[in-house]
Every structure is written in structure tokens, then in C-alpha cells.
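User: Quick sanity check before I run a bigger batch. Here is a single chain. Can you write out its predicted 3D structure?
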Amino acid sequence: THGMGKRHCGMYTWDHTPAKRGFDTFFGLYLGAQDYFSHKRSGDLDFRSDYHDENGNFIDDLRRDLDGQYNTRLFSDEAVERIATHNQTNPLFLYLSYTAPHNPYDVSKQDIKKYASHIKKKPNKGRQKYAAMISVMDEGIGKVVESLKENDMMKNTLIVFLSDNGAVYGADGQGSNYPLRGGKHSLFEGGVKTVTFVNSPLLHKTGYTNTNLLDVTDWYTTFQKMAGDEPEIHSKPQLPLDGVDMWDTISNDKPGRDEILGNLYLQSMIQGSNDHEFVEKRDVSSVEAQEDKEDESVTMEPGDYFSLRWKNWKLMTGTYLSQGWIKEDQVKKDKIENNGYKDSSKDGSKQKFENVTMLFDLSKDPREITNVASENPDVVQTMMGKISGYKEKMTKVNKSRSSRKGRKGGVWNPWVEKS
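Assistant: Done. Predicted structure follows.
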């Protein structure tokens, strides 16, 4: 098992870093973003090769030697190397998690010239960088696939390509979630519905669009079953999984799950919620700027909220971030004049916090325009009744995901000693 790229799943102790959580090797960053060339965040380095030596000792090798090299290409090259040197008598799981096209938006002038010179710089120069960043990533994915072919591994390989969220809402000409509502940081479809594709000769049905419900947590369960893993024989008991084995859904287009929890946010479930050392007020006008805070913490929202998808219904209730849509006439104008879409909060409703119960029938209203909660009180009651079941499974979380306490000697590290 090899991981490369962005971790962003916790690092407060060394035991919570990738090479101590199931990966044989890890090459990349613990945090959620970094400068693409210096590999630093807020001035401190976060780029490493982690592994265990022949004696079983954990090694955290800081890669200062890679300063100045574009991280997207470094991740692709690492993946190609792992494939080329893999002992094919053993199975392989490779997790390639690019930071692209996350902020800070940066790419070389040569790549802009190569991939995005056809896009007008004004009034939408952010679109040029964004397009070039994605093209460099696409170039890397092509190399990975080619390496699988060269090493005769494609016949028994499953490739899954997915994103963790939609494009940033209100960004200056980068991604667009049109025609869906909202974007990153929201629970509207533009924020949570992402494009995924699966490629493999193992699939029974191919060349079609699968519209079944599938949650990101389903991938672990599906991979585990496909690999023939038997949790009951592990030395450490496996905790209950949220995911569902979706192989029949993916391979045969059969219905699977009919319910997905968007989020259940309860301030009472955050440890130290009265501890002002880590409390951050969300600045609605510049949500993405949160990423540059020195402490990266679970954000303190104005209130509790709940979002659930059940069949074709989507419920949102409590106090949550509301975002609007890009207008259709703006899309047409930008496509003609700017070779791209400017997904701006000036087009449609601005983002703001709202406290209202909304219900959408996504089979008829995929853009989430019409709130039909008042016309369907029975559906609202049924979906609200599911909250208690989810609350029973909740565990309190520690707000702090990274801390300045671990920033020593110009490096980001875990900051809590193992107890």
C-alpha cells in the first residue's frame, strides 16, 4: 500500500500519520494544502517520505531536496515508480491524492503557455492557472495509466478517479459547478456532488453514466471486499464501517444505498467547544481564506445543522451556509467572451448563513431552486426522525487538526506525545 499527495486526515500524534495507519510508504504532505514549489505552509515545510526500515523503525524523511519542483509532477512520478518496482506476486493499493487544483493557485508560465494560452487572460486570469494546473494533473494520470500498461497490470486493476468536493463558490474564474447550486463549504449539490469515473476490465457493464447514490465512505468497504480482506482475523478489531459494499452498483448498475448523511453538526459533540484558544469565526465573505490560518481547526459554526439525502429527497435544516447559483445568461456570456465560466457570488444569491428547513425533490429540481418542505410535511418528519439514529453513533471530536505547537525548526509535525 502506497500513499502519495495530500493526507489531511489528522496528524496530532505520529500514530495518526499515514505510514502508521496502514500505508507501507507515504510521499507528500500531512496538511490540506501547500505552496506547489516550496512545499511550505505559512513558511514551514510539510513534505516527506515516510516508511519503515528493514528493522521496522519508522522513518520520517523530510524532502528539502525537492524544493522548487512542482508537487503535482512529483506525486505522479512517485506513483509511476511504485508501479514499476512493484512485486506483482503481491496485490497493490495505490492512493494518489493530488493537491491540484486546490489553492494557492500556482503553476509555471511554461505550463500556462502549453496548456492554457487559448484562454483570455482578461478579465479572468485565474482561469488560465486553474486550467493549466488541471492539465498537469491530467498529464500525470496519463503517465500512471501508461505505467500500468507497460507493466502488464491493467488486466487486473481498478482505477477510480474522484474529487472530494465541488469547486470553490465565488472564486475568481477558477472552477464552476454550473448548473448546480453552491460549491465547496456548502451542502448544496454543487458542493457535495462530484464527478467520478471507474475504469477496469473487471467491470461487467461499461460505457454508461451511473446515477445511483454512492458515498465516499463506500470506497473503503468496496475495496476491502474486492481484495478479499477478512476483518475478523485482524489482530486489532475493526470498528463498524459507515460505508457499503457498492461493487454490484458500480459493476452492474444495480441500486445500492438509498440514504446518505450530508452532515450532522452538533456543537456539543466538539471537545473544548468553549476553549477560545482554537475557536474560529467563519468569515462568510472569504471562506477559503480559512485555509491559511496558522491553526487548522474544526470550524465553530453559528449553530447546529443537519443534511440528509433520502431517495430523491434532500433535507437541510438548522443554521447552515447558504449559497446561490451562477445565472445561465452569465454562463453564455462567459463562454463566448472568456472561454470559461465565472462562478461568482455576484451572479445569483450571495452566500450567507440561514436558519430554515429546506426540502428539495432532486428528481424534479436538481438545481435546488424550489423549497417544497411546506408541501411535504410527512417527508420532512420522516427524515428528521432519522437524526436520533445518527446521534447514537456520534463520537466527540477534538477541534484541533493541526497546531502551531508542532511547528518547530521550520517543519510541520505532530504536536502531542503518545499517551
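Residues 273-295, 338-349 have pLDDT under 50 and may be disordered.

User: Great, the batch can go ahead then.
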